[in-house]
Every structure is written in structure tokens, then in C-alpha cells.
């Protein structure tokens, strides 16, 4: 018999149905983060392709991002750098490398996948890994490496992913392998890097603005063990023909616990930002999820939406950049466009913003009725104490049951607390938890009323 699944110690989420075996009386509700009213960076026309992380050695938050030119750097798109003490207020240090706060890195096109493997990485000279897109004939995605995250040297074997399929004519609808929108992360579950990328596909009806007849921007996914040898990208999501001239501007993947979460940038180049205004395109961000990092599900509700008020700094676009957990909150960094997709005007028309979300608060399972219910699949528990991420206006209880639905002795509804209030870690101590057989696969059952349930964690012994 196959080994039973094991709950992760942290980040067991109800963002999709992976941890839901059965439920009743619940609805799925995508949550939207609360935006700060003003941009956090707008001086050098920054773009939403970015990586943000906290460096405990420096005691600082670090941001690497695309920027559309600078007086000291010329008209080319560059890769810029900023630092922050709190993740909210950012400074652009003069690095003394290329010009102002720009990295010493190979020049590419839009976007750059970027990964920091941390101070314990096996090869310190390749701690920081970045990719870039070279649109020249015969090129594609190149990679470069750095010891400090500021000075990058290109890999001698570039390109690591070609732009075109050499076995197909260049004008074939599906000859494109990879294009200029690239996002990456490290996957600790499978021990590999994931790459979300833009690919062009033909066979559609209609001509999107700024695109060839019948072609649409889609999203592909690749993986690599070493950031050099990559699988040929596989298309994981294509536009829905019922949604007008819909396209996608890439997807940023992340890994939380055993969950794969993607932030899908949706583009409608056939719509104006302001009714009756110029048709220059609008965009927003949706969620995608995967149980294995290979097969993905799109959830077509806005997660991060543009501001409908005319003239606002993110009136046309709100496209995801990166996310960092800070205490009990998620800091969601994104790019906002004041005007449309291909408008390249003055400084301030493209800016970086910040939106705040509760920790792991991507999707709520909402109970309005009394005695709504949810049961997880059977899995082994990594610890005996549970914490629940929930907003409970009514009541919530949790119990453990075996595969026959019989409660574990001392872990029934009445053996634990009645949860009320708003917390990302409501503690559940069952009376009989000390006698629990940890090698057995058990299911969690939640009974709740007037509540939003997000997920659960476990506390190691002694906490």
C-alpha cells in the first residue's frame, strides 16, 4: 500500500480543494489585499518584474526590479536595486556600478527571473541566479550568476532555452518556445527551480492590440535542477475564447508548504481603462494553484485588481510582482500602470505598489449557515497541537477522526476549545492529544458557523 500523506508542519491552505475531502455549507471566496494609497517606488519608471526578500545578515529587505531607463544608464531597460528597513519605505542606493542603483548585469529585454539561494548554498559564487531574455535571432533565455546579488556574470553556454523551435518555420503559429516575460522560484518540495514564461500560440480568432492576427500570449512552465538545464516549456494555461481577446502576461509561481500558487497576469488589450477612452489595454492578477507543480488550475476571479478611478496610478494595470510574509501579514508587491499596456510616457506612469493581506489569506472557505462542515483527506500529523487561521464571528470547533469517521479518543468536538475571534493561529489543544498514535492517518473535521476558514498549521512539541 502507498504511504499515507502527511500534513505539512506549516501552510496547509484551503486555497484549492487539495486538502478538502468533503464539505457542506461553505463557499470559496478569493480575497483581495488592501492597497496602500500611494506607490512605494516611482522615480525610475519601475516595472512589476521583481524579487523581494528579507536578508537576516543585513537586517534589510532587498528588492531587485526592472526599470525603464535612467539618466545615467541610457534608454535601455535595466535591472535596478532598492533596500528597506521595514518593507514599506524603500531607498535606491547608489551602487557605483553602472549608474545610480542599477546592477552590473547582462542587458536583456523585459523581465528577469531571480532566485536567492541563501547564505548556505553549495556554490557561493552562484548564490544569486537571474535569467534574461535576448530577442536577437538565434537567442532566447540566458542566465547569469552572482555572489552578492549586484554583480552578475553570464553563463558561457547561453542561451539555455531557445526562442524558436529550430524544426519549425519561424512563421508557424506554434514555433515560439519562450518569450520575453519570465518569472522563477525555487521549489523545495521537488528540489528544483520553476520557471513561468510567456509563449505565443496561434489558432485563435481575432487580433489583439499589438499582436499578430490569431495569436495570443499564453503561459508555459519549465523546471531545472541547476538553473542551467531546463525542460522545454509546457503550456499550462491558454485564454478562454469566451472572454474576448484575453491574453496572459506571465505567471509568477511560489511554493507554500505543499502548495504551488501562481499569480497570473491577465491582459485585455481590447479594452480601455476609462469607458469611452483610448483602447490601450487593462490588466489584473488572478490566482492559479497546483498540487504537484505540473498541472495547474486557473481561478478566474480578481485577486489583485486595478483601480477603477480615472487618473489613479494603477488605473490601467495591477500586475503581481512578489510576496513576502511579514509577521501576520503578506506584503504583496505589484506594478501599477496609470495608462495602458504599451503607453511609455513620463516618470510616474509606471510605479510599484504594496498591498497587505492576512498571512496565507488568499482564499477563505466561508460559512454563513450554522454548522457548516469541512473534512480533510486522511494524513499523518507532524505534531499534536494544531493552529487554525480563521476569522470566527460565530463558532468553530475541530476534531480528529479515523478512516471510519470515528473520533480519536480525547480529540472529539468537546475535547478541544470553541474558537471565536480573528487570528492567524487559533490554538487547538485536545484533551487526548498526548495519547495520539502519530503513525496513523487521520482526518481533521471542522464545524463552523459565520466564519472564514483559511488553513491550519501545527506546533512542534514544546511550543
Main features:
eight-stranded antiparallel β-sheet; single chain; five-stranded antiparallel β-sheet; 463 residues; Tachylectin-2, Chain A; mainly beta; globular; 0% helix; 2 domains; Hypothetical Protein Tm1070, Chain: A; 29 strands
How would you describe what is shown here?
It contains no helices and 29 strands. The strands form six sheets. Strands 1, 2, 3, 25, 26, 27, 28 and 29 form an eight-stranded antiparallel sheet that branches. Strands 9, 10, 11, 12 and 13 form a five-stranded antiparallel sheet that branches. The protein is mainly beta. 0% of the residues lie in helices and 45% in strands. The model has no long low-confidence stretch (mean pLDDT 91).
Query: Uncertain spans, ≥5 residues at pLDDT below 50?
Result: none
Number of separate helices: 0
Span from first to last CA?
Answer: 34 Å
Q: What is the domain total for the residues? A: 2
The overall average pLDDT, rounded, is 91
What is the N-to-C order of secondary-structure elements (H for helix, E for strand)? EEEEEEEEEEEEEEEEEEEEEEEEEEEEE
Question: Structural class from helices and strands?
Answer: mainly beta
CATH class of the largest domain: Mainly Beta
Strand share of the residues? Answer: 35-45%
Question: How does the major sheet shape up?
Answer: 8 strands, antiparallel
Amino acid at each position: 500500500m502507498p504511504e499515507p500523506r502527511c500534513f505539512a508542519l506549516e501552510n496547509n491552505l484551503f486555497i484549492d480543494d487539495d486538502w478538502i475531502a468533503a464539505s457542506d455549507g461553505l463557499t470559496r471566496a478569493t480575497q483581495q489585499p488592501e492597497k496602500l494609497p500611494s506607490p512605494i517606488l516611482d522615480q525610475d519608471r519601475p516595472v512589476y518584474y521583481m524579487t523581494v526578500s528579507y536578508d537576516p545578515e543585513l537586517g534589510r529587505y532587498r528588492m531587485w526590479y526592472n526599470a525603464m531607463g535612467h539618466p545615467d544608464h541610457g534608454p535601455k531597460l535595466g535591472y535596478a536595486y532598492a533596500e528597506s528597513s521595514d518593507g514599506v519605505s524603500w531607498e535606491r542606493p547608489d551602487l557605483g556600478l553602472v549608474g545610480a542603483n542599477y546592477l552590473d548585469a547582462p542587458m536583456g529585454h523585459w523581465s528577469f527571473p531571480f532566485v536567492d539561494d541563501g547564505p548556505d548554498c553549495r556554490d557561493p559564487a552562484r548564490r544569486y541566479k537571474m535569467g534574461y531574455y535576448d530577442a536577437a535571432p538565434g537567442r532566447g533565455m540566458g542566465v547569469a550568476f552572482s555572489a552578492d546579488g549586484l554583480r552578475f556574470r553570464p553563463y558561457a553556454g547561453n542561451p539555455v532555452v531557445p526562442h524558436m523551435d529550430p524544426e519549425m518555420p519561424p512563421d508557424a503559429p506554434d514555433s515560439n518556445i519562450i518569450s520575453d516575460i519570465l518569472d522563477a522560484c525555487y521549489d523545495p518540495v521537488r528540489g528544483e527551480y520553476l520557471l513561468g514564461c510567456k509563449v505565443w500560440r496561434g489558432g485563435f480568432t481575432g487580433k489583439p492590440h499589438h499582436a499578430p492576427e490569431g495569436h495570443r500570449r499564453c503561459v508555459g512552465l519549465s523546471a531545472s535542477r541547476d538553473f542551467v538545464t531546463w525542460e522545454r516549456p509546457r503550456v499550462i494555461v491558454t485564454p478562454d475564447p469566451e472572454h474576448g481577446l484575453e491574453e496572459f502576461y506571465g505567471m509568477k509561481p511560489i511554493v507554500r508548504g505543499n502548495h504551488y500558487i501562481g499569480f497570473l497576469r491577465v491582459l485585455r488589450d481590447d479594452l480601455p481603462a476609462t469607458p469611452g477612452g483610448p483602447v490601450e489595454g487593462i490588466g489584473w492578477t488572478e490566482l492559479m494553484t497546483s498540487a504537484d507543480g505540473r498541472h495547474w488550475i486557473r481561478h478566474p476571479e480578481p485577486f489583485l485588481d486595478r483601480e477603477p478611478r480615472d487618473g489613479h496610478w494603477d488605473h490601467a494595470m495591477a500586475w503581481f510582482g512578489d510576496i513576502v510574509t511579514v509577521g501576520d501579514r503578506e506584503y504583496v508587491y505589484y506594478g501599477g500602470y496609470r495608462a495602458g499596456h504599451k503607453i511609455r510616457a513620463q516618470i510616474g506612469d509606471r510605479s510599484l505598489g504594496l498591498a497587505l493581506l492576512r498571512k496565507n489569506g488568499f482564499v477563505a472557505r466561508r460559512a454563513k449557515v450554522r454548522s457548516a462542515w469541512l473534512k480533510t483527506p486522511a494524513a499523518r500529523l507532524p505534531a499534536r497541537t494544531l493552529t487554525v487561521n480563521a476569522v470566527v464571528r460565530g463558532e468553530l470547533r475541530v476534531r480528529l477522526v479515523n478512516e471510519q469517521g470515528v473520533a480519536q479518543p480525547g480529540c472529539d468536538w468537546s475535547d478541544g476549545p470553541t474558537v471565536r475571534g480573528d487570528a492567524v493561529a487559533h490554538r487547538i489543544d485536545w484533551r487526548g492529544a498526548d495519547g495520539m498514535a502519530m503513525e496513523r492517518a487521520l482526518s481533521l473535521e471542522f464545524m463552523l458557523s459565520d466564519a472564514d476558514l483559511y488553513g491550519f498549521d501545527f506546533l512542534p512539541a514544546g511550543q
